[in-house]
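To illustrate the input format used throughout this study, we show a single complete record. The first block contains the structure-token representation of the backbone; no residue identities are included at this stage. The design step must infer an amino acid for every position from geometry alone.
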């Protein structure tokens, strides 16, 4: 007997199945056939929702970025206290998000074809924009005057991302670096 489901529910099932298979097998070793078999749908239904498995990954990444940006915005709105507190909260959220989603970030990097920016690049860009946007609020909480605020946060976000992805996980190191840079 054929089971009819809401279009959004079915699309979400395909995304969830693809995500699980990408995590288990890697992006390159996961086929569209494997995805449709896991969800128990016809291949045509897959192509109704997605152009390719690459577009599935792009959809997962878009959802990931939406979650990151909403969470970061909420964190920064809730963060009270000094410049150091706010900056620590920002960096802490950013690094924890990378840690919690490390597998998807790795898969995205491995699958990157150059057609779309990889997830690390998108994360860095989003974090830099968010950090710079929030620096305007920092002036009321004892922030040092930065001659080049955009460039400062570009260096911080990119450097911290690269350091974290290279295996440095101790948050105390990042807080010490922030203290050394800003004299906090």
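Output of the design step:
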């Amino acid at each position: 007997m054929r089971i009819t489901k809401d279009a959004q529910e079915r699309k979400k099932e395909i995304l969830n199945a693809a995500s699980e298979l990408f995590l288990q097998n890697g992006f390159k070793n996961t086929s569209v056939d494997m995805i449709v078999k896991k969800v128990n749908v016809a291949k045509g239904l897959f192509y109704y929702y997605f152009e390719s498995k690459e577009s599935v990954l792009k959809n997962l990444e878009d959802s990931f970025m939406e979650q990151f940006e909403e969470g970061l915005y909420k964190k920064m709105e809730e963060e009270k206290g000094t410049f150091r507190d706010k900056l620590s909260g920002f960096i802490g959220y950013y690094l924890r998000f990378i840690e919690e989603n490390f597998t998807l970030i790795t898969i995205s990097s491995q699958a990157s074809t150059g057609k779309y920016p990889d997830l690390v690049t998108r994360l860095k860009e989003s974090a830099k924009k968010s950090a710079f946007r929030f620096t305007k609020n920092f002036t009321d909480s004892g922030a040092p005057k930065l001659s080049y605020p955009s460039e400062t946060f570009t260096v911080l976000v990119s450097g911290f991302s690269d350091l974290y992805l290279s295996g440095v996980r101790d948050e105390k190191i990042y807080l010490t670096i922030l203290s050394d840079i800003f004299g906090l």
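Structural context for interpreting the output: The CA atoms of residues 8 and 49 lie 10 Å apart. The two ends are 66 Å apart (CA to CA).
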